[in-house]
Structure formats: structure tokens, C-alpha cells
Amino acid sequence: MKYKIYWLLKCQLLCCVRFSWGIVSGQIRYSVPEELQLGAFVGKIAADLGLDVKQLKARSLRVAPSPRKQYFDVNLENGILFVKEIIDREQLCGSNLDCRLSLNVALQNPPSLHPVEVEILDINDNAPTFPNSQFRLEISEFAVAGMRFPLEPARDSDSGTNSLQTYQLQPNEYFTLDVQMRSGKGKRPVLLLEKPLDRETMPTHNLTLIAKDGGLPPRSGTGQIIVIVKDVNDNAPVFSQSVYRVSILESAPKGTLIIKLNATDLDDGLNGEIMYSFGSYISASARKLFDLNFRTGEIILKGNLDYEENTIFEINVEATDKGSGAIPGYCDVLVEIVDVNDNAPEVILGSSSTTVSEDSPPGSVIALFTAEDRDSGQNGQIQCQISNQLSFELDSSGMNYYRILIHHLLDREKVPKYDVNIICTDKGDPPLTSKKTIHIEVSDINDNAPKFSRPVYTANVMENNVIGASIFSMTAFDPDVEENGRLNFSILESEVQNSSIISFVSINSASGVIYAQRSFDYEQLKNFQIRVQVRDSGAPALSGNASVNVVILDQNDNAPLITHPLPEYGSTAIETISRFTEPGSLVVKVSATDADSGQNARPSYQIFQATHHNLFTISTDTGEIWTIRRILNKDSPNQRLVVVVKDNGIPSLSATVTIVISVVGTDSETFSSVITSSSDPRFTPELSLSLVIALGIISGILLIILVILAVKVHKNRNGMVYQHHSLGICCCLDSRHSLNGIQKASKSLQIPPNYVEVFGGDPLSQRFRYESCSTLQSTRRDLTDPSKCRTSAEKKFLLNESIEKENTGMANSEKYIVPEVR
Q1: 445 φ/ψ angles, rounded to the nearest 5 degrees
Q2: Mean pLDDT, range 302-325, rounded to an integer
Q3: What's the topology of domain 346-443?
Q4: Of 318, 439, 509, 771, which one has the fewest beta carbons inside 10 Å?
Q5: pTM, whole model, 2 decimals?
Q6: What's the distance, CA 669 to chain centroid?
């Protein structure tokens, strides 16, 4: 970590120093260390070009594209050239001391191209390493002092002082270390024998070899040398030269003989027979391209050479005899690749205007390009020309940089577009040619405003929508092109329910898709309007407007709410009916409301449960409950109905109400009362006789009243009111629809208080009312049982008790239900 910080500081200082000679011969040069982080500072390219930072975006300052990897880019905010890709100098330039990257910086308005060269400085980020952690040497015990044993050199990917500099051997009494220069391209460690070895005394020697570089701080690597002492065969093969140099054309075919090596060995027999092999100090790419005959020493080409990838190969060859304890001999073969004209020129567009305004003056630059050839010498020299010479001309500024200029005024109405062909040829033998075509369109100025297909749109949105869901898509048309035709949508500010329209919807500025910002509720908001504006990106920008009427569609999200009858006892509604009610009479009307609309709010009514299913029916549309037949004495005095109200939505929602209909007005109640009274020991026979006489008188009076009523009803069908003051009884009847003396009440008939209402008139508040106590007080039971006249609270308690017993199956047939007193 300290090492990297040191190098970063050193390189930053070096960059500052280099800045003073940044512009030389029209080319800007910088120096940066390798392995800089992304975004690291390289140089103030805008200042070096003499540009105003505020004009960089307008002039579109950028690094021109190149077939090679782009390691740098320009920040248009401050004009600084920065690192775009991590640079590994060893991967980029290998062990070359000079490592430079060339790039071109392009400008428009007017177009120009500026070459930039960045020198990549090496940092000491690689330690020397040996190919193998252990070296194994077999040395004869007859080896004389002064014999040399070359060792495998270490490798260091860094360059300059950061590369491998020296070797060091841990001190011992038998061996010392000599560092041998290798053809000016490295150093090889050589082990020197200081005194003869004695196998019987010490058969093996373990040595430690240290390789050091020249970095600051320095790095090092170690390798173990295991020396095995052998007998006999004390002469090693010897090459006539330590280094051989050969040249070969890069177009040489496979199988070409590169060189035939010949080493000599003074020994005889197997100790003098030599075998050849590649040494350890040879690159993987060289092994793929070259093959070595282990018997003859011939090096043969087995791959395709490319001068542009590698100009030289170094092949390390080892020669050993077949004797026991053979001592190898080494040599290096340097194969230099000769360039041939096998690469055509490459045309690289640095800046071009694919669309040119028809009012562009002659001399305007429409394209900048460079031509490069990877070959060298004459093979890399290029000449370029263009077609359409009448409309355009080519201007060369030297160094293979070219400009394409407008030759005369263009007329879009005559020629709307051009195809300009760039033809570049090198001077090789034979010459090679490449071609690139630039397509140029002649455009108008921004004179068309964007338009919607119609001024008003309608968007239907289902309520309870998902927040962020798309609800509508706006489309607009602009006949202009590029920036003049690039549209941006926006919503104009307005208010809906005292809130900004932005809190309800949003729009994608590029696509025109409108999104919901909240979940809509039809019951709270039925519709609202959006004003959408579309603007192009021309200068000046033109715009158009349209309105969108957003209609919220109802969803079945509200269950019906039963408004009548309302429960009076817990969750149960109480209604009363006379036992003498005729079939087809209206009992009660169930009413419900639904906050939804349309089919979602249309209720339908159904009897879900009933004490007697053949006694009542219900209208599915109005909720009116009618009697089907007469009420029999065997029917339960408490009829329990469960009514279900469903809406017509999908899926359907429902609500229920339980109605207990109390049947009142039966003769059995009177007889039950009489029997009960006579069984009381307090009643005397005289009292019973008086009671019978009183009942007879009352029955006679009732019979007379019924006859009079029948005559009156026959004469006047509009309804009459009859009163009998001595009995304190009043009946309000409607002569319409008379059925066996039981009439249905009129809707418009006003019912006085303290009178019995035989049938309720208003279906929304249908009730039966009965006089709480008759003025008839002539019986002994009335005199002896003051509970005959009960209060309203007492009767309500008895009614509730009777209903509960019937619902649990405990009601007694002798009990009777006292109706609610109104």
C-alpha cells in the first residue's frame, strides 16, 4: 500500500512537470502512471487546446473513436482528460521501455481533430518470480572449480528500473553467483563452482537464490537450488555461439526452416550424443509458432507470423548429452520478423455530420477522418481521395489527417442526400486499398411544431388501480428530424380537488405514457382533466397541447347496505302481521343502497332462510315481502326470515338481514286467557258467569260493526273511518282490493294514533300497530289481573323473551306474543 501511494505521488508530480511541454508541434503529450483508478486526472485538455470550458458541450468535445480500446475520455464539465479504463502497462506494451498511447480529440462547430499522446509510466507493481520454485542441478563430483552452471532467470513484468536488476545467492563455501548479461535484454544468474565437490561428504547442496528489482521500495523473489552431486561425464555440450540472429518474412509459410543448431561434446559414446530441447526461458507465444527437432537441432516454423503483433522472438535452446549426470549447454536464438505489405489502410472517422443544413456555406467541414496502416516503411504510406468532387472537396492537413469540405451550395430540393466514398491506398508492392462511405442527408431548419392527432382524448381508468400503472399513452407527430423531431411530453400544472395534478398522474417525457400516482376511488372522484404539452428539442423549441379527460370507471368494491328494516333487537328486525292477513298481502319491504353505480349498484333480493318456505315470497327487484297463503293456526307465531341482498357486480357482493315476523290477533289467545282465568282458584262461578256474559255482549257488538262496515264499504270504495267510542276501538281500512273482509291499507291514508293499523301503507315503514289496552274492563279477569294492561316496556320484554325461546326451540304453544306498542 505504501508502495502504491509513493508511486501515485511520484507520477502526479511527474504529470505536473510534463505539463510544461504539453504542446509540441501541434500534438499534446501527457504522462501518467499505470494502474490509475477510473476517473483519474490525466491532463487539462481544454486548457491545452485553448478552449473555453463553457463551450465544450456546444462544440461536442470528445475522444475520437478508434479500433483499439479506449483508455481515456473527456469530462465536458471541466475539460479534463481522465482515465476511462484501467491501464496495465505490462499487458499493453510488454517489456518495452517506451510505452505510449495515441488518441485523437475531436471538436465540432467547426470540426477539428487534435492528436494527443499519453506516455504510460511503469510502477513497481510486479515482483520478480522464478518459473519454478525449485531448481534441480546435477553436478559431477569431478567438476573443477570455476565451472559455470546457468540457472533459470527470474521474470519481472515491470520495465526500466522497476524490472529485474540483480541476483543474490545466500553465502556458502562451494558456490558463488555470477550475473550474465543476455544480449542486452536481461540478466541471467550463473552458478560458479568455487571448489570441487565431494559426493561422499555432501551428496546434495540446498541453495537460496534471490532476484531483486530496482523499484522503490524494491521487490524480490526467491527460488531454491538443489544441487545433486554426480559422478562421471564431466563435459557439457558447447554451442559455437551463445546468441544466434536470424530474419524471416512475416509471410513465410509453415514448415520454413529457421535455423539448424549444432552443439559439440568432447565426450564419447552416450556422453557425447546430444539432444536438443527448448529451455525454460521461452515465451508461450514462441512455443506455439516454432518447433525444435530434438535430434537435429532444426528450428521450424509451425504457425503464422504477424509483424504487427511481434517483431522479434527470443528462443532459448538447451543441449544435453545422453550420459549419466549430463551437464546442459545453452544458447539463444533471436528471430527477427520482416514486415510485408499485408494490411490495407484503415479509415477512421473522427467527426462527421450525417445531416447538413441546406444553408451551410461553401467551405463548411462535414467530416474529419484519419487513415492508418499497420505496416511500416513504404507499406504504411497512404494517399486518399473522395467521390462527388462537384459537391465536396478533400483537404489534407498532413500526418494522415483529412477534412471533407462543402464545395458549393447544397440544394435539398434537388438532392436530399449524398453518399461520399473515401478511398485510401498505400504505397506497398502491390498496393492495398480500403474504402469507406459517408451517408450525408440535407435537412431543413426547425419550422414544424409537434402536433397531437386530436385536441381531446378520453382515458377510461378502472378504480382501485395499481399505483404506477399505465393509464394512457399520448402520441404526437413532428415532421422534423433528429433534435428538431425529438419530442418531450409534460403535464401542465392544474388543480384537481384542491390538489396539484402532479399528485394524481405523471408522464414519461420520452414515450408519452401517462401513469397513475394514486389509486382512484370512483365514489370520491368521477373524472378529471389533464392538459398535456409536447415540445420538440429544436432551437427555438416549438410545442403543441392536448387535453385528456380521465374517466374513472366503477368497480364492484362496495357491498349493499340495508337501510330498512333496521335491526331493533341486536341483529334482528321485528315486524308484526295479523293472522287474518290474506294471501298476496304486503308484509314488509326490504330496502338497500350501494355506493357503486350501474350494474354494481343494482340490488336483487332473495329469502335465504325461512321458518316456513311456503308462507312468504320476496320480489327480487323491489325487496317487497308478500304472503303466499293464509296463516294457519299450526304455523309458528314467530316467523324468522333471513333475506340476502346481492348486487349485480362481478364478483357479486351481498348483505343479509334477519326479520322476525310476529303473528298476532288469534282467537286462541282469548280462549287461552279464559281457560287460564277459570283455573285460578280466586275466580268464583259468579265471576265466570259475568265473564261469559261480557264476552257475548262484545261478540254481538263486533258482529254489528262488521255488518255496518260491509254495507259502508260496498257504498263507498274510497274508504271510511268507523269509530266505536264505548269500546275505544278504531280501524282504518282501505276499501280497495277487498278480499274476504280483510283489506289492504292505502298508501295515502293517514293513521290516527291509538288506532289499530290492519296493514301498513308505506312499504318503507310498514308496521302493524295495535291498541295497547282496550277500554273494555268488564271481566273479572280484568278486575283481578291488573297485568292485563301492560306498559310498552313490559310488552317489549315479553316479545323479546318469546322470540328468543322460539329461536332456541323452547317456545311453549300456550305462550302468546305481545306486539310492540307504537
Answers
A1: -85, 175
A2: 89
A3: Immunoglobulin-like (2.60.40)
A4: 439
A5: 0.34
A6: 79
Q: Which amino acid is at 121?
A: L
Under CATH, to which class is 134-338 assigned? Answer: mainly beta
What whole-number distance in Å separates Cα of residue 429 and Cα of residue 294? Answer: 39
**Top-tier CATH class for 2-121:** mainly beta
pLDDT tens digit string along 669-727? 433 333 333 334 343 445 557 777 888 888 889 889 888 888 877 665 444 333 333 33
Does residue 410 register a pLDDT over 60? Answer: yes
| Cα 491 → chain centroid | 25
**Helices of type H across 422-562:** none
- What are the DSSP calls for 539-589, one per residue? SS--EEEEEEEEEEEP-S----EEEESPPSBTTEEEEEEETTPPTT-EEEE
Tell me if 451-553 shares its fold with 561-664. yes
What is the residue whose three cell numbers read 540457472?
151
3-state secondary structure of 421: strand
Q: Which candidate, 130, 209, 137, 215, places its Cα nearest to that of 167?
A: 209
Q: How far apart are CA 734 and CA 713, in angstroms?
A: 9
Q: Quote the pLDDT of residue 413.
A: 67
The CATH architecture annotation of domain 451-553 reads: Sandwich (2.60)
Supply 223's cell numbers: 527460488
Domain extents for the chain? 2-121, 134-338, 346-443, 451-553, 561-664, 668-789
CA distances from 604 to 12, 171, 238, 659 (A): 86, 109, 114, 17
* pLDDT above 50: residue 2: no
Name 220's bridge partners: 212
> DSSP for 252-314?
PPTT-EEEE--EE-SS-GGGG-EEEEE-SS--HHHHHHEEE-TTT-EEEE-S---TTT-SEEE
Q: What are 245's three cell numbers?
A: 540472429
318-346: string of b/e by CB count within 10 Å (b at 16+)?
Answer: bbbbebebbbbbbbbbebebebbbbbbbb
φ, ψ of residue 697 in degrees (nearest 5): -60, -45
The pLDDT of residue 234: 65
- Alpha-carbon distance of 579 to 558, in angstroms, equals 39
Residues 592 and 562: beta-carbon distance below 8 Å: yes
